[in-house]
Write a structure and sequence with these properties.
By secondary structure, the chain is mainly α. It has one domain. The chain is elongated and about 50 Å long.
């Protein structure tokens, strides 16, 4: 099973490779700015997931499973917020 940190990195990577970049550390569409933009896109996407999941609390069949699910995505969101590209 993926950890929240692994999931954060996977989502950021998916966003990064969907964005155009020039393969350089300078200029428009540089690698560094694209990692930052990918992190921001991932943060927005996961925040939307957290909001949607929490809005479904009353219809979720198992309260313990619900808490685990919310915890996982909130931890993933925190990992995205603190992500540093190498």
């Amino acid at each position: 099973m993926m950890t929240p940190q692994d999931k954060a990195q996977a989502i950021i990577s998916q966003m990064y490779f969907a964005l155009p970049n020039n393969g350089s550390f300078t200029g428009i569409n540089n690698v560094t700015s694209r990692w930052q933009e990918a992190r921001q896109c991932a943060e927005i996407a996961v925040q939307e997931m957290v909001d949607e999941i929490t809005s479904m609390q009353k219809v979720f069949p198992d309260p313990e499973l619900f808490e685990t699910y919310v915890w996982f995505w909130e931890e993933t969101l925190e990992a995205i917020k603190t992500f540093k590209s190498e």
